[in-house]
Amino acid sequence: MGLFSFFSRNKSSEQIDAHNVSDLELFAPVGGTLLSLREVPDLVISEKLIGDGVAIAPERSTNMIYAPCDGTISRITASNNAFTIKRDNGLEIYVTFGIGTNAFTGKGLSSRIIVGAKVTQGTPIINIDMQVAKEDLESAIVSMIVVNSSADIAKVISSRGKAQAAKTPCAWVYLKDSENTND
């Protein structure tokens, strides 16, 4: 066994362990290259002010943003560039497309779902015409953030590398053990 196969095997076993023991496994909402939130050119996201998670530099062929997990759509922005999925346990997952959206009107984006809709992992949420949408944005990065205030979160672990939309697990959420918090 070569050195690189050892590292590949460890990464796979780490992801298997995360899948088996995490409280929530999140799948890539778009295909592309997984990045740390620290690499996102937006201070609120890169400093993890609202929460931790993972970012994705989307493939040029991206035309859809998918639900990273099961839950209820609790928010969709007017410009259709972001949505929130709320889980039954109160955990909220915020997915946002693009950086520099202050004046963004949502040209090139359309929602396929409404607030209050129940979704399953892989449900198509937002249609993207990437060429049109990118015209008014600084960056087309997609960020997926586990909102700090939504549950008693112990940690979020994210992956690196390439991801397939709605197929690649890319972040794992661990909640604090309720038995240990009653001190």
What would the keywords be for this entry?
transport, disordered C terminus, 3-stranded antiparallel sheet, 183 residues, phosphotransferase system, disordered N terminus, Glucose Permease (Domain IIA), Dup_hybrid_motif, PTS_EIIA_component, alpha+beta
Q: What's the layout of helices and strands?
A:
Elements lengths: L2 H19 L2 E4 L4 E4 L7 H4 L4 E8 L5 E3 L4 E6 L5 E5 L5 E8 L9 E3 L6 E2 L4 E5 L1 H5 L4 E9 L5 E6 L2 E3 L5 E7 L8
Antiparallel strand pairs: 1-14, 2-3, 2-13, 3-11, 4-10, 5-6, 5-9, 6-7, 7-11, 8-10, 12-14
Pfam families: PTS_EIIA_1
Main location: cytoplasm
InterPro entries: Dup_hybrid_motif (IPR011055), PTS_EIIA_1_perm (IPR001127), PTS_EIIA_component (IPR050890)
Strand proportion, as a percent range, falls in 35-45%
Q: How many distinct helices?
A: 3
| Helix content class | 10-25%
Order of helices and strands: HEEHEEEEEEEEHEEEE
CATH class: Mainly Beta
The overall number of domains is 1
Query: What is the rounded distance between the termini?
Result: 48 Å
CATH topology: Glucose Permease (Domain IIA)
Secondary structure class reads alpha+beta
Number of strands: 14
Global Rg: 16 Å
Strand order of the largest sheet: 9-5-6-7-11-3-2-13
Low-confidence stretches: 1-12, 179-183
Which shape, going by the Cα principal axes? globular
Give me the CATH architecture, please. Answer: Distorted Sandwich
What is the mean pLDDT?
A: 88
Instruction: Name the CATH superfamily classification.
Output: Glucose Permease (Domain IIA)
Q: How does the major sheet shape up?
A: 8 strands, antiparallel
Oligomer: single chain
Pfam families: PTS_EIIA_1
Keywords: Kinase, Phosphotransferase system, Sugar transport, Transferase, Transport
Subcellular location: Cytoplasm
Main location: cytoplasm
